[in-house]
Amino acid sequence: MTLSYATQARIAGLSYLVVALTGAFNLLIVPAEIIGADAATTFANAQAQAQLFRLGITAGIVCQIFFVITPVLLYVLLAPLGRIAALLMLGFALVSVPISFANISEHMAILQLATGEGAANTIAAIAQHTDAYNRGASLVGIFWGLWLAPLGWLIAKSGTIPRILGIFLILGCIGYVTHFFLSFFAPGYEATPIADYIHTPSAIGELGTCLWFLILGAKDKRPT
Q1: Residue ranges per structural domain of the chain
Q2: Rounded Cα gap, residues 206 and 187, in angstroms
Q3: Does Disulfide bond show up as a keyword for this record (predicted)?
C-alpha cells in the first residue's frame, strides 16, 4: 500500500520531532547537569547522577537512529524538487551519524569510570574522554550545519512549505559552520554573546520545519 503524501509528511515530522527532543536532552540538558568546568567536577556529577547520565546516553542513541530515518524520509518528500540537493542533504546528515556515535562512546567511558566499572577510575582519564568528546562535537557540528543548506533550499523553493523556514535553515547552516571556524581560529570566541545566539536560526528553522510537517503540512499536496 502506497502512503499518501500527507501521511509521509506526518511520519517525517514525527521522526524529526524525536530527533529534536532526544537531541536536546542528550546535547543540552544532561551535559549541563553532568559535565563540569573540570574533570573532578564531572567525575562527582557523573557519580551522583549516574542514572540521568544513562538516560542522556540512551537519548543520544535514539536521536542518532532517528537521524538516519529522518533525512531518508525528507529525501523521499523533497527529491522531486531537486535530486542533487536532496542527495547532498542526505549525505551530509548521514556522515554525521558515526561521528556522533563516537562521541556517545566517550560519554559512556566517562560513566564507566565514574561508576567504577572502567579499567582505570581516574580523573585524568575522564579529562581525556571529555576533551575527545568536545573535539568530536565541534567536528560533527560542521555536518549538522551543512545538511541544513540543501534542506533549506528545497523547502524555500517548494511553494507549499513556508519559505521563511528554508531561509532560517540556510542561516542555520551558516551559523554552524561559522561557529566551528570561530571556535577553531578565534580563542575566546566561546565566551562572547555571538556564541550564545549563533545557533538560534537553526533552532527556529528545524523546529518549525518538523512541526509544519507534523501538523500544518499534513495535506495531500505534494510539491512539484
Answers
A1: 5-216
A2: 29
A3: no
